Amino acid sequence: MNRVPSQGNSVSYLWNAGWEGPPPPRGCEVFVGKIPRDMYEDELVPVFGRAGKIYELRLMMEFSGENRGYAFVMYTTKEEAQLAIKILNNYEIRPGKFIGVCVSLDNCRLFIGAIPKDKKKEEILNEMKKVTEGVVDVIVYPNATDKTKNRGFAFVEYESHRAAAMARRRLIPGTFQPWGHTIQVDWADPEKIVDEETMQRVKVLYVRNLMISTTEDKIKAEFNKFKPGVVERVKKLRDYAFVHFFHREDAVAAMSVMNGKCIDGASIEVTLAKPVNKESSWKQHFNGQISPSSENLLGFPNKEDATQKSLGKPASLSVHLNGQQSPGPPEAESSTYHIFPGIKLTPISMYSLKLSHFSSAVMHLDYFCHKNSWAPPEYCLYSTTSQDGKILLVYKVLISSITDDFRSYFMPEKLCTTVEDAKELAAQFTLLHLAPEQAYITLLSLNAAWWDSKANCTPYLV
Fold first, then answer.
1. In the predicted model, what is the mean pLDDT of the chain?
2. Does the structure show a pLDDT above 90 at 43?
3. Domain 109-187 adopts which CATH fold?
4. Nearest Cα to 130, choosing from 73, 92, 177?
């Protein structure tokens, strides 16, 4: 292993100089958190070498010479990375010091917001290539009602996480103004990696770019044309849908036949849906196994303080699934600290924070509207009385600045017994309809079980 400090000593690299061939594929890297600040490669390499051959170790450093408390370790195979997670997560690396180890998603995608809606994919791609290096592709979604326009945002795919990080650093100051517009730049939500064995069992198709007016019955009829009776059911949300088949082989055949076909004048895109392992997701949250989308230090719960921290929502958000109580959604750590004399407090806007600081869909929606230069959401409360005399509540969400799209208000079709639940449900419903490709994954990680129970949302990634 050779050691090379990077520019400014912000990263300490260790890599296998004897490696031949291309770098290991994605899925071979793990993220390590809660490393003691005075620990370096001489102690880390022997520990992580127990799981397999290390291709590269990147220990994040302060200019003071201490490490930042986290590192990235890349193995030569995915199996070695999984073994490292299994045997080293919550490993006592020093007396009373437990590290956290989880998969590193190696994000290579940036979110670019506030793009003029009349710009085509090729124009956006060319602009990004002018000022950043390593651009592989640009993903642009058409407007739900006017397919000649985009939705005002795009995702830029880079050849590596490093290339994406350098591009973000270049774009984020706001000096780059394509077409005379100030764009917004952030990390895109990392793609969820689903193992090949699981994907081989999928019999649900994700259908995108549908017209708002297209009904579930029309979609079912179109997919049944190539082989009658193969579709079990269809779940449509705004301009995309999930088509469930009785048999996998029919789903695969339908994907090949229907991809690129026109339904009600719209050319649709069809792919296999990515299933969400809810049990695994909850285990990851409660074990602190949340992978960063960039080089951010995340808090891993220690064994010694596990009893001091509550990760669940109040009892009112607990739900019953199949007769068993399911935990409420995990939320960000909300500890309190004393304000000591002399502590300097600096004014800060909530919009300068990261999404990980928000523990509710209400805050996510407010952040999302600001990010896209929309008016803040307005909540209008309505009520009715149930047959047994209970007051039932629902919120209508108004966003006045998007009236040029399909509609400016959103209201779920379910009533709640508390104001808090009604507002949270309305915010989630609005997010899923405004930006399903980005918000759906965010909401699933926020409170998958609660949303699935209350809103009857199909648990598949878009």
1. 76
2. yes
3. Alpha-Beta Plaits (3.30.70)
4. 177
Which residue bears the tokens 């640009």? 138
Residue 134's contacts (CB-CB under 8 Å, 6 or more residues apart) are 158, 159, 160, 163, 164, 166, 167
Q: What is the pLDDT of residues 176-216, one digit of tens each?
A: 788 887 888 888 876 666 667 788 889 999 999 999 899 99
The secondary structure of the chain in percent helix, strand, coil, rounded to multiples of 5, reads: 30, 25, 45
In angstroms, the Cα distances linking 400 to 369, 373, 379 are: 11, 12, 12
**Contact in structure between 128 and 138 (CB atoms under 8 Å):** yes
Cβ–Cβ under 8 Å, residues 381 and 393: yes
For 196-275, CATH gives 3.30.70.330
Amino acid letter, 393 = L
Q: Kindly give, in sequence order, each residue whose CB lies less than 8 Å from that of residue 145, ignoring residues fewer than 6 positions away.
A: 211, 212, 405, 406
In the chain, the percentage of residues whose pLDDT exceeds 70 is 72
Q: Token match 């193995």: residue?
A: 75
